Amino acid sequence: MTTTAIRSTAALSASLTLLAGLVACSSAPSTAGDSGSGGQVTITVGDRPSSADPTNRAQFDKKVADFQQANPDIKLNPVETIWDATTFQAQAAGGQLPDVLSVPFTEPQGMIARKQVADLTKALKDDGLLAELNPNVLKIGQDQAGNVYAIPTAAYSIGLIYNRELFTKAGLDPDKPPATWDEVRADAKQIAAKTGQAGYGQMTTTNTGGWMFTTQTYAFGGTVENAEGTKATFDDAPSRAALQALHDMKWVDKSMGQAVLYDYDGIQKAFAAGKIGMYMGAPDMYRSVVVTNGLKPASFGVGPLPQQGGDHGTLTGGSVQIVSKTTTDAEKAAAIKWIKFANLNKYVTQDAAVTSAKNGVAAKQPVGVPGLPVIAADKYATYQSWIKPYVNVPLDNFAPYTKVAAEQKIIPEPPVKAQEVYAALDPVVQTVLGNAKADIPALLTKAAATVNAKLGR
């Protein structure tokens, strides 16, 4: 999901910064004890944009220069290495990873188990950053003992995007989006009957079908893979119930309209055009729906992900920063300073927060879109107070989400071969929405066999 991390593994969201693909490392990572004259520490940092992206490269290089000016005892060696699922393990085995690298939420637990990343617990405590991070999100990068191996820097959690104008036209309360899937079904039926538009839509293509099926399975209390990532677990009651809900909205209630083959961009265009009442997505889709595709800001609404049969949680994604296991204590400390400066500065420094907000307003971009914060609640509240004069989005429209999202359980995407799993599940969702007589149990059994073959490689 990351035009950078909402598509962290299926359809990336423009507000996060996870990159995809691979550019060869231009130099080897720093070695232990690499400390130039005067005790200077040198670390290699990844994720430098390539020369084919001159604007972002220049911004990155300026950030490097600013950091080094503020920290003359640290030298940064920026390289173009970025995370790629197909090459990461070979890079790790060959010692070709930089000292600092951004990776998606799907990766830390596997890296911790394989002992591929540094334990940052002490360095984070010494820096003071540990106390400033959101403990709920930090779990993504912790082992069972609570030691920290990855620092979350961008996060999202899936909620329910809905059109407040269509809700009003249908006689529904736009300040009270559905909290369960039974309510989603009822509201979708009412929207379709009263407005003639699809009450609910779902992404189904280019791996987004599997991504959203996973999200919905979580909301019904199920899982897609076991904790080890060795076996598919979606051939069970929660997944069948999730698909049955889609089937019944499409074929019994006829509340999903005729179009069912939506990708990430397509569903946002249809939603912005007023053709869909609700769909699953993250709050930062506001940028694409409103700024890019022209929905009136007042019509955008978002609530927490509806649950079914209990408070199960929602899918989360995003990016974390990892540090090479070969780094020294001094290099770990330097790495954390860079991570904080490059990714979290606006949350902990008022000047940086105000500058970022002003730049957003000047660029006519949304400022203040709520989401899943990577910093602790008190720090996030302070950050929001800093940028309040520059907020240009209707915060009340996000209130149903923000009231719940901070406490809602977050569940990472499948830990192994997430994209291949999603690809195997796309046709399952498409078949259910394209054939009223689809055999849901048989579809899931067949897809599970496909996924198990991939996981067993």
From TrEMBL:
It comes from the Bacteria. Residues 1-32 form the signal peptide. Residues 29-56 are annotated as: Disordered. Keywords: Signal. This is ABC-type glycerol-3-phosphate transport system substrate-binding protein. Pfam families: SBP_bac_1 (PF01547). The keyword tRNA processing does not apply. InterPro entries: Bact_solute-bd_prot1, SBP.
